Amino acid sequence: MTGRFGRFLVGLPPYAWLALFFLVPFLIVLKISLSEPSAGAPPYLPLWEWDEAGNLAFHFNPANYGMLFGDDLYLSAYLNSIRIAGISTLACLALGYPAAYAIARAPLAWRQSLLLLVALPFWTSFLIRVYAWIGILKTEGMLNAVLLWAGVISEPLQILQTDLAVIIGMTYSYLPFMVLPLYATLEKMDLTLLEAAADLGCRPFKAFLAVTLPLSMPGVIAGSLLVFIPAVGEYVIPDLLGGPDTLMIGKVLWAEFFDNRDWPVASAVAIAMLVLLVAPIMIIQNARTKAEEKAEGRTGR
Amino acid sequence: MASQPAFAPWTDPQAKPLIRFEAVSKRFGDFTAVDRVSLSIHKGEIFSLLGASGCGKTTLLRMLAGFETPSEGRIFIDGIDITNVPPYERPVNMMFQSYALFPHMTVEGNIAFGLKQDRLPKDVIAERTRAVLDLVQMGKFANRKPHQLSGGQRQRVALARALAKEPKVLLLDEPLGALDKKLREATQLELVNIQDRVGVTFVMVTHDQEEAMTMSSRIGVMNAGGIQQVGTPIDIYEYPESRFVADFIGAANMFEARVAGDRDGRLVVHCPELAHDLTIDHAAPLAAGTPVTVMVRPEKVAITRDMPAEGLNWAEGVVSDIAYLGDVSIFHVRLASGHKIEALQTNRRHTDEQKLTWDDKVYLGWHPANALVLTK
């Protein structure tokens, strides 16, 4: 009994924290998304109120959600966000997998230092690091200077203020989130499995495809989700590196909240993003965890 | 079995060994794991490399599998130098100590894996997979994943996977190490039966003497990177060539002694710890004064209350310890010199009228044929 109670106590603070600062705000946003906009402060009408006769009156306004489907802007912002986040995730995977593999197979004495290098960018502010990319990507920036000097191009490229710049910025920013879970799965892999594959006549590259890659799928999925989910809603990177026509849902949200001061529509955009993206991903993740627990439960005992 | 000619190709000088190590050494940095080992293993053998951990037996096996490259020396299989052939091109398969089954594949997938590498037709793969699964009696479990199997079942799958490619040599790294004692004993004999049926040469690494003795056609006893002695289980146990092997295999009573001379074609040695000189059969002639070790196995020592009427080798002492093991009892007898001798007695009856107990005065005796002189 005390053990159970102790576990409950230990679990309480994080859950209380999440309930207070995630669940409650989420419910507030949900509430706002269903209310009518108004010119006052706050810029929306209450969802329910007591009229003079003492009756409870509701003012639902589902039109905010209807608007999301009515206006192309929102749909194309969603799709473009998914596209950019998807490409960035693939780029992170392409760069992060070899890096994680190399670290996991490096001599034990080196691994900690190499991992530290992966995490090193976190020691500088995210904002400053994204700003630094402006200096690299702009027309008269370092990247163009190097490419011109090397003779690869004859005229500076317009990279900044394009989707490409956003993808580069996201890939750079989220790469550690890909490398760390991949490293964790690759590092704990039993290397005698590769010896067994070789013993059974499998060449090293084929053994990678047949054994290492499938066994690292949990890391691939975890890393991809860690990159993809925040990338979809990313605001700072498209705002700083993207152009005026870089349409992403984070920017639309910002515009609705602060430029249009249409809180109900902005809230509806936020809720729709959550439902469309995060909910299916969470369901998949949950199913995977359960399957893994089942598998481990059988071997463990 | 008795009517069949004994299987002993190693005694035939014309026979060509299947596996040959020629002065193979392996160094890791400053550490020499395997030190100039030369060894021949014949087709159809179950050859065990036996030794304590760190003696180099696993490194030797891994060099045969191709996971390690010798620092010096050559390795031949069927007359072909395979020293630098990568593991995926060698005609050998290994059963790993941890089994190393692919966790993301079914039992069937694991077994078919090696066959698929050879690009065999699908129906051949299916047929062979089925055949080896039946061989190890795992046919019912073809669609299970490794984590859904017990340790003994995984061991069978690992064996089936290694046999599926019909290798010239099957390597077994502590094949039964992960099984509990009862299952291990049953599996030992089953492995031998399977080997008999498929006719594949087994090379096995083990630290378990009983396992090596039960299963092997020959045993190579290893110590500190070198092979100490190669021989049949009987050779190794009854005729060890060195103090190390005598001491390592089974229990042994050892006496430090000096050669006193020859009498009636038998060697007579003087041992300061014993009151009487010892007489030993079958000894090569040795010059008087040569220091030797005399070895007698405990089960060859007779223990009696009365002084032996006639006997060449005897000693008297006091029972200081009795280890009762159920089937046998081991008596530790302290001599006047303080030296202890172990004698083993089979407990043939429920009770023994003459039951020996602590502090009883007893006589120990053994036949000259049952002692051995060791000079190494």
From TrEMBL, chain A:
UniProt keyword terms in alphabetical order: Cell membrane, Membrane, Transmembrane, Transmembrane helix, Transport
Cellular localization per UniProt: Cell membrane
SUPFAM superfamilies named in the record: MetI-like
One GO process term, biological-process aspect: transmembrane transport
Entry keyword annotation includes RNA-binding: no
Annotated ranges, domain ABC transmembrane type-1: 78-284
Record membrane topology: Multi-pass membrane protein
Transmembrane residue ranges: 12-34, 82-102, 114-134, 164-186, 207-232, 263-284
Cellular compartments per GO CC: plasma membrane
Coarse class of the protein's main subcellular location: membrane
Gene3D superfamilies associated with the record: MetI-like
Keyword Cell cycle attached: no
Family in the record: Belongs to the binding-protein-dependent transport system permease family. CysTW subfamily.
Name of this protein: Spermidine/putrescine ABC transporter permease
Species this protein is from: Paramagnetospirillum marisnigri
TrEMBL record, chain B:
Gene3D superfamilies listed in its UniProt record: 2.40.50.100, P-loop containing nucleotide triphosphate hydrolases (3.40.50.300)
Protein's UniProt keywords contain Cell inner membrane: yes
InterPro entries to which the protein is assigned, alphabetical: AAA+_ATPase, ABC_SmlMolc_Importer, ABC_transporter-like_ATP-bd, ABC_transporter-like_CS, Mo/tungstate-bd_C_term_dom, P-loop_NTPase, PotA-like, PotA_ATP-bd
The EC number(s) this enzyme carries: 7.6.2.11
An annotated Gene Ontology molecular function: ATP binding
Top-level enzyme category: translocase
Highest taxon above the source species: Bacteria
Pfam families: ABC_tran, TOBE_2
Keyword Metal-binding annotated: no
Catalytic reaction equation(s): ATP + H2O + polyamine-[polyamine-binding protein]Side 1 = ADP + phosphate + polyamineSide 2 + [polyamine-binding protein]Side 1
Keyword terms, alphabetized: ATP-binding, Cell inner membrane, Cell membrane, Membrane, Nucleotide-binding, Translocase, Transport
Domain ABC transporter: 19-249
GO cellular component terms given for this protein: ATP-binding cassette (ABC) transporter complex
Complexes and interactors: The complex is composed of two ATP-binding proteins (PotA), two transmembrane proteins (PotB and PotC) and a solute-binding protein (PotD).
Recorded family membership: Belongs to the ABC transporter superfamily. Spermidine/putrescine importer (TC 3.A.1.11.1) family.
Function: Part of the ABC transporter complex PotABCD involved in spermidine/putrescine import. Responsible for energy coupling to the transport system.
Protein name: Spermidine/putrescine import ATP-binding protein PotA
Originating gene: potA
